Description:
Elements: E1 2-5, E2 15-18, E3 36-42, H1 53-63, E4 64-75, H2 77-89, H3 100-105, H4 121-130, E5 133-138, E6 157-164, E7 179-185, H5 191-204, E8 207-212, H6 216-228, E9 235-239, E10 243-244, H7 247-259, E11 264-268, E12 279-280, H8 293-296, E13 301-302, E14 305-306, E15 310-314, H9 315-320, H10 343-353, E16 358-365, E17 367-368, E18 372-376, E19 382-386, H11 387-393, H12 397-407
Parallel strand pairs: 1-2, 1-3, 3-4, 7-8, 7-9, 11-16
Antiparallel strand pairs: 4-6, 5-6, 9-15, 10-17, 11-15, 12-14, 13-16, 18-19
Amino acid sequence: MKIDIGSGDKRYEGYTPWDWSLEGDARVLPYEDNSLEEIKASHVLEHIPRHQVNETLRHWVSKLKPGGILRIAVPDFDEIMRMAIDDRDNPKPDSKPFPWELYVMGGGVDQQDIHYTLWNHPKLEAHLTQAGLSNIKPWKPQFQDGAQPDSSAYEFSLNLMGTKGDGIAELPPPDYSDIRAVMTMPRLAWTDNMFCVSSAMQKLKINVQNSIGVFYGQGIQRVLENCCEDATLKWALTIDYDSIFDWRDVVALRQVAEANELDAIAPMQAGRERSVALFSAKAQDGKMMPVTRDQLDSHHFPVSTAHFGLTLIRVESLRKLPKPWFKSEPNDKGSWDTGKIDDDIWFWKQAAEANWKVALAPKVHIGHIETVISWVTSERSKEYQSMFSWLRGGKPWWVRNREAIWRREVPEQPA
């Protein structure tokens, strides 16, 4: 099967179209891994937000069979600039100016007609290599007689293709019955998380123990104490009720932890309602340390605190840790504002005093469920607002501004 991503209204024999106009998201292909013979994406990649490019390429490659081909076409920034300079320096009589801005930035007709990234040959080849492709080389568009050429036929189009290698067959889930997963749950919880947990734990043969109650510290310590009483357990795995992950994340965490003799390790997880990851790294003087690019590119780096969304804790180390493991304390003024200590921070404080080796695995990413509200924009696309924002400020200003037209109110402006 061959897929033509960004097909628009064009249809080519042998290719199945996949396009926004067909309600198809280029970043999510609904096909089994290792199932497609070829994927063609002509002038699609530049329309994907920069931070999603690598993930999208890896997703496309994962859908290819071993030996499958990914064909990419993008506007060649180097060639566009060459043509623009030539048009400026050698203007042709009675001809329109070369529309280089259109080819660089997109038409801007709607949200799908915007270019987020610029490409040239070295950059595209590097990204395809990083996505796991080999034998990367140019390709020429070929169309059936009478077929309308697509954008890969543009004079400034950069067309590269790569081949997916045979790779290594993925190993089956290991038997991790020497791990126990522990959770503290509200009476009502996310069904998405429950399906996620049950699927991953069943594959790894990990039993799950749950505690229900409003006092998080008491509940999580109780189930962790039960782990310490079981001589067959080597690791305890804390899982939050709003974490999203799969069994491979647990395998990766254990491999890194055991290879580096760590006492605890956590994955990269974003905070709810905020744009920061849930960990901290402090120097010996207590000051926060910036995270370097080398650390983010490594398999693990030391941290002072982490979240308990999917944290692996060595049971042997836990048995020796002084109690209480979890405890909350107010600040010096007796209030629960700035300066307070939460239950989870107390745990990491105890771990630091016990000289634990605590690390974050920056290459292991898990999700964090949060509620958002979707709003229709003036371009009939969709934008999201967090519940945190709505509870504190109501509808987005641009929604209120638009409603003012029919409510006969004075339009509002953003703060």
